[in-house]
Design a protein that fits this description.
It is built from three helices and eleven strands; from the N terminus they run αββαβαββββββββ. The protein is an alpha+beta fold and 175 residues long. The strands form three sheets. Strands 4-11-9-6 form a four-stranded antiparallel beta sheet. The relative contact order is 0.14.
Length: 175
């Protein structure tokens, strides 16, 4: 890639983040780019709304948006008044919880091998340094250890789900 192409790619990434576009594919001749950004928004259950990509096409030096696809994240439905009233209490409880985060990018596994029981489950008491899961990165199985002692309140990711650096894996109540 030429330095001009790299600059265009940087501008493209900035544009996508600014417009909160979750996924982007570009197919131009022998250049193929696929970008996927992690988001705090749950995956939409309805069809994603399409974003007007005219500005993006101009950014990429093309007069048309042919071959470009982009999807904006769909906002979660608004909470009911009952759920909104309960939110402050759950937020206070969440603040009291310690979060074990992924130290690397990879794939989360709850057990040492398929068919084995999970390292930990909700309600389990864990000690600092105890293995709570595995994150596979580049065919290496990295054991993730608890960085605090307490009780597992909730597992925040699904088995075999891709995880990002710093992504919350478990919520624990420190004791």
């Amino acid at each position: 890639m030429k330095s001009d192409d790299i600059e265009q790619l940087k501008e493209l990434i900035a544009f996508l983040k600014e417009n909160e576009i979750a996924e982007f594919d570009l197919d131009r001749g022998d250049l193929k780019v696929r970008l996927k950004f992690a988001s705090a928004v749950a995956p939409p259950t309805a069809a994603a709304s399409h974003v007007d990509l005219a500005g993006l096409a101009r950014l990429m030096g093309s007069s048309t948006a042919t071959g470009l696809t982009g999807h904006a994240p769909v906002a979660a439905p608004s909470q009911s008044s009952e759920a909104a009233a309960a939110a402050p209490d759950s937020k206070e409880q969440d603040e009291a919880l310690h979060i074990i985060k992924s130290p690397i990018v990879g794939t989360f596994y709850e057990s040492p091998s398929p068919g084995s029981s999970a390292f930990v489950s909700n309600g389990d008491r864990i000690e600092k340094g105890q293995v709570v899961c595995i994150v596979e990165a580049m065919k290496l199985m990295n054991e993730i250890e608890a960085d605090a002692s307490g009780e597992i309140v909730k597992r925040l990711v699904n088995n075999a789900q891709p995880v990002e650096y710093g992504q919350p894996l478990f919520a624990i109540r420190i004791s």
